[in-house]
Structure prediction request, 111 residues.
Amino acid sequence: QVQLVESGGGLVQAGGSLRLSCAASGRAITGNTIWYRQAPGKVRELVATITWSRGQTYYADSVKGRFTISRDNGNNTVYLQMDNLQPEDTAIYSCTLAPFWGQGPQVPVSS
Prediction:
């Protein structure tokens, strides 16, 4: 069993930054890790992904250039650095390492 524990969410003003962490326990992360987000009344959106084998990254167009996904193998943790946050980034952010999911910190962005 793998547990994904997320941290780093919270209220931020437009233009600000946050870093979300997704720490895995139970076994080492050996698969691709994906960050999703779901805004109120909207469908879930894939935000960013990182492959474990080569660290290749992919970003949704809506966050490209502002968000950075990275990993720390030693700490078994994946990060999502979010810069220049905008109100439209307001959502619940969840990390997943299939088939496991984190609990999803809220990220409200005020204008």
